Amino acid sequence: MMSPRPVHPWQPPRSEYAVLWHGCTETDKDNIEANGIQLQSCRGWTDFGQGFYTMTRKSQAIKWAWIVYYRWRSKNNPQQQNRPVILRFRLRRYSTAKPRSPFDRGLDGLRSLHFVRGDFDNEDYWSFVQHCRQSPRGGPPRNHLCPHDWYEMVAGPVAARWDDRAVLPDADQFSFHPGGIDLLNARIKHGMGAGKTRGNQASYSWEPLV
Question: What separation in angstroms does the CA of 142 have from each of 47, 61, 97, 107, 199?
């Protein structure tokens, strides 16, 4: 019987969870908590296709929350009660041994695409972004080439000016699509609790910015 591979002391332990952030308005948050994330309500013509986008950096989610808020304010009565907020999701990196529900599934169980670099010459990344960004206006937003459900999550750099092939430095995004949304909704449900069950804010929580 072979002995287990030794663990070198310089190797850090693997983190069991990944923390992702989403910026929106309080009205959006209330709808998400009441009805779950509805993919048809998500913006189209985005970097990785129509999906629910989260950030690895809290500061980037804060910036996006203010952008969304001012977009809302430009189209609504500013006297209406609404404010920018950020949502925090703590997702499993690895599924449990025998996942029984979306809550037990991890990011490793999703059909996913991962882009590491957003360099000007990275044709794979920029052709993907260009295709999703240039979906025909007036038609439904599209994902990349294949049927809409061929990926459940995409991870990669945030395109700052996609037509110039420029990305935001030190910022990554995770977009969730059909199938991947279930993981987020499970965290929301667990974070809020139901009936006599108290919620666990380690799974999901939110913060107001004003």
Answer: 11, 24, 34, 23, 36
